[in-house]
Specification:
With about 325 residues, the chain is of the alpha/beta class. It has 2 domains: about 220 residues, 3-Layer(aba) Sandwich (Rossmann fold), CATH 3.40.50.1100; about 100 residues, Rossmann fold (3-Layer(aba) Sandwich), CATH 3.40.50.1100. The protein contains 12 helices and 10 strands. Strands 1-2-10-7-8-9 form a 6-stranded mixed sheet, with helices on both faces. Helix 3 crosses helix 7, helix 4 runs parallel beside helix 5 and helix 9 packs parallel to helix 10. The relative contact order is 0.15.
Length: about 325
């Protein structure tokens, strides 16, 4: 099983804990935290990068490309050594992150490209086709399938620890792959008779711009791009902001199918909830990753109808 393969490489099996302090603070019944910061490079992306690297190896590739603003690229570079695959990371030339040096020191090959992240995804994919390298980017059908399978393991771990499916699960949303994968995992558990329900899914993102949340709030069932001019990127919302969600349709489908909810979380709230998690739980959570907890608070205030068990997936740690 993929879950077992991930664990062999130190991926998954991350912290899952009940937060009684935050329950009191936010007036909740039961809040559980699934903290992905314990993965090798500090984010949930290690699950997906392992799955895509495995695809590349099975396809006979020894080089791959991935567009990234930092975390995904760092994950691929770190794990690629185990697959003997050379990783080329394409980064928007206007973006700066300390993870660039980390990637270079670990043997990653950095390429700067003009344009937004979404445009660099397209350009790097074209380069992969031209050079005969593996295109590891989101939005490629095989990668989406593999990544969703990898993120489904988060659901299996939650179910394993609780012994049942929670009522509500909140997940930060950038491209949408993680939320879609978590939803898929709970559906599979239900279909296999391991649980009798699929949780209500809550998408957490940024008012800086995200198509999944925008479409959901507008009652739309088909994902659409935003205009790049609508996007406001900051150092705190970068993992969430997007004008094109590469796996957005899958995430939007998960929201509608689960009778879900979506919330915009502004930067000051991201920072506040990141501090709450540090002070109340001792967890150093990336501000964007704390959006899931903030979105649960929004859900409880505006939509809750008696749900008792809530899970916030905290997707990355502060480095």
């Amino acid at each position: 099983m993929l879950k077992d393969d991930l664990k062999l490489h130190g991926i998954g099996g991350t912290i899952f804990t009940r937060s009684r302090n935050i329950e009191i603070l936010l007036d909740f019944s039961k809040i559980f935290l699934k903290f992905e910061g314990g993965n090798p490079t500090g984010t949930m992306k290690d699950r997906a990068s392992y799955a895509c690297l495995d695809l590349a190896r099975k396809g006979g590739y020894d080089k791959l490309v991935i567009a990234s603003c930092g975390n995904f690229g760092a994950s691929f570079v770190h794990l690629s050594k185990r697959f003997d695959i050379e990783t080329h990371v394409y980064i928007p030339e206007g973006y700066h992150t300390p993870r660039i040096r980390e990637m270079e020191d670990a043997g990653g090959i950095i390429h700067r490209a003009p344009g937004t992240y979404e445009e660099v995804v397209e350009f790097s994919g074209q380069e992969a086709a031209r050079l005969g390298w593996f295109n590891a980017n989101p939005g490629v059908e095989a990668n989406t399938k593999a990544s969703m399978e990898a993120y489904a393991t988060i659901s299996y771990e939650i179910h394993e620890r609780l012994g049942y499916a929670p009522d509500v699960v909140a997940v930060p949303v950038g491209n949408g792959t993680t939320l879609a994968g978590v939803h898929q995992g709970f559906k599979r558990l239900r279909d296999e008779g391991e649980t009798d329900k699929v949780p209500i899914m809550v998408a957490a993102s940024t008012p800086g711009g995200n198509p999944v949340v925008d479409c959901f709030h507008n009652g739309e069932r088909r994902i659409r791009d935003l205009e790049p001019s609508e996007i406001t990127e900051t150092e705190h919302n970068e993992p969430l902001v997007s004008w094109r969600c590469l796996d957005g349709q899958e995430a939007l489908d998960a929201l509608w199918e689960s009778r879900g909810w979506a919330a915009y979380v502004p930067d000051d709230t991201l920072l506040a909830f990141s501090e709450i998690l540090a002070h109340q739980e001792g967890l150093l959570v990336l501000p964007a990753s704390s959006s899931s907890l903030a979105a649960l608070a929004d859900y409880a205030k505006n939509r809750s109808s008696g749900e008792r068990t809530f899970v916030a997936v905290l997707t990355g740690r502060r480095l």
